[in-house]
Design goal:
By secondary structure, the protein is an all-alpha fold. Helix content is 74%, strand content 0%. The chain is built from 29 helices and no strands. It is elongated, with a radius of gyration of 29 Å.
Length: 522
């Protein structure tokens, strides 16, 4: 994202009417003075600044009421108000004083200026809020930051920020910079108070604005930031995921990524935006009702087209399909019906296009993990009929080369998990205070989850009772000095750690499926 210089002095159109051109000089002198005289912040200094700000605000309101149609008569008061807002930005260097600012009841006065008739004043306020909530200011001052953010939210900062955002004209450089500043401020507020992610979607038209920004075909820094903010809003909020789904969000995101089915992004920033858009799409696919919308909008077909074109969105398309097909049989069936198996198994066999923007080794690993998950979803979603036969037949063709690949991956991930287990065994767990759950998470991060999915796929193949497949599996296990008991052990650990986040019934159903595989390998 292009870094906007928030501290640079902006041109102000309404100053041209000030006599003798003295306003700019006066402003520079005032800023120079504040740099030397306000270095030491304390409650007394803050109170003095707040009183000066309130006085300038009162003067500006009075001048505008008295001379509503004579801008030159209230221009001076606006310059003075601007100066006071600039001085308040220095408070970001003393965040421990934020509770004092709140107790002085200054927050409502500052926020009301977001609706000021002069957008330059509103721009000043956005810059001030961005500075006060910036991570550099609040990182080591969590409690004062919470006090300030709570006060901002209680005084309608979200509604006022978004109302101001809606009136900004991005053809003006200052206002374009303020769009970025507004999004940055909202991100800062979420960092301090995660509940803001849902509040801002519930109380404002931010989602609608973000959607309109993403629809724009031309790329710019603010479109990239809009995609990033949308991903943040969706990543951990089911309410936001459902809300955006009801706003035709699936269609909008599919249209946005479809622009890259035949072309690559032109810059690293544009590539980051494309990744953000896919993050949004994957977040949106968490609720089942949005997977239905994805299916109806022919999202499965689009992702297969993107994979076939082998552009930079290739890996992201696999990830989106993985999300869409997990525990959703209709998407699995559609995938088989539109001839997706050939494309998926080409990736499974390692025929992955090179992405110049990604580190080759890790990029390939991530795609391997995604494609294994996708194939496991296919087996879980297609339990019988001709589609199941077509899926199983893939593991018989070319002398069972897919089973060879499966066992090759099994060995690689098994060795990685074993290496991590050995590392953990050598640690003093009492000193590290690691419990069984944390050890299990460490193993999952080392590749255990992918290993478990490979074992599940082997279970599906074994339960098909196809003699050629069973024979190949037994031969390959023997060559690797493994037995069916080794696969059973992996499946047993998976079985024992299935959680109940989706309900007790779903947990028991999932465990019964895994138990069936364990028993079949006896």
């Amino acid at each position: 994202m292009e870094e906007w210089n928030r501290d640079s002095k902006r041109k102000r159109e309404d100053l041209s009417s000030v006599p003798n051109g003295m306003a700019d000089m006066a402003m520079l002198e005032a800023l120079e003075k504040q740099g030397t005289s306000l270095e030491a912040w304390d409650p007394r200094t803050l109170k003095k600044l707040v009183l000066a700000f309130e006085r300038r605000l009162k003067d500006n309101i009075a001048a505008r009421l008295k001379y509503p149609d004579q801008p030159e008569r209230f221009a001076d008061s606006e310059i003075e108000l601007h100066d006071e807002l600039q001085k308040l930005k220095g408070l970001a260097s003393a965040p421990e004083l934020y509770p004092e600012l709140v107790s002085l009841n200054t927050v409502p006065s500052i926020l009301n200026l977001l609706s000021h008739d002069n957008t330059d004043i509103a721009i000043d306020v956005v810059q001030l809020l961005q500075d006060l909530t910036d991570e550099d200011a609040v990182d080591d001052n969590a409690e004062p930051a919470r006090v300030l953010v709570d006060a901002l939210v209680d005084n309608n900062v979200l509604e006022l920020l978004v109302q101001n955002l809606l009136r900004l004209n991005e053809s003006d450089p200052d206002e374009m910079a303020t769009v970025y500043g507004t999004l940055a401020t909202i991100e800062n507020l979420i960092e301090v108070k995660p509940a803001v992610a849902e509040l801002v979607c519930e109380k404002t038209k931010l989602l609608k604005w973000l959607m309109s920004k993403i629809k724009v075909k031309e790329f710019d820094g603010n479109k990239q930031y809009a995609s990033e903010i949308l991903a943040i809003l969706l990543q951990s909020s089911e309410a936001n995921q459902k809300r955006l789904g009801q706003m035709n969000g699936v269609d909008v995101l599919l249209q946005a990524v479809a622009m890259y089915k035949n072309k690559d992004p032109k810059s690293p920033d544009e590539a980051e935006m494309l990744e953000n858009l896919f993050n949004c799409l994957c977040g949106l696919l968490m609720p089942m009702e949005n997977r239905e919308k994805f299916l109806k909008a022919e999202g499965v077909e689009l992702m297969i087209i993107i994979m076939k074109q082998k552009k930079s969105a290739y890996g992201s398309a696999i990830r989106a399909l993985d999300f869409a097909m997990t525990k959703y049989p209709p998407a699995c069936e559609r995938f088989v019906d539109v001839l997706g198996l050939k494309t998926a198994f080409a990736a499974f066999m390692g025929k992955i296009p090179i992405n110049k923007n990604e580190k080759k080794e890790r990029y390939h690993e991530e795609l391997e993990e995604r494609i294994v998950s996708l194939i496991a979803s296919l087996f879980g979603g297609i339990m019988r009929g001709s589609r199941r036969e077509r899926l199983l037949s893939k593991f018989v063709e070319n002398e069972c080369e897919k089973i060879d690949r499966l066992v090759e991956l099994y060995m690689r991930y098994s060795n990685r998990v074993k290496a991590e287990t050995d590392r953990i065994d050598q640690l003093d767990l009492d000193d590290l205070e690691m419990d069984e759950e944390e050890i299990y998470i460490r193993k999952l991060e080392a590749g255990l989850y992918t290993l478990q999915l490979i074992a599940v796929i082997l279970g599906h193949l074994w339960c098909s009772e196809h003699p050629q497949m069973r024979g190949r599996i037994e031969l390959l296990l023997k060559q690797q000095k493994l037995t069916k008991k080794d696969v059973q052990d992996i499946l047993q650990e998976y079985h024992d750690n299935i959680g109940d986040m989706e309900g007790v019934e779903e947990k028991e159903r999932s465990q019964a499926k895994i138990q069936k595989f364990i028993s079949a390998f006896d």
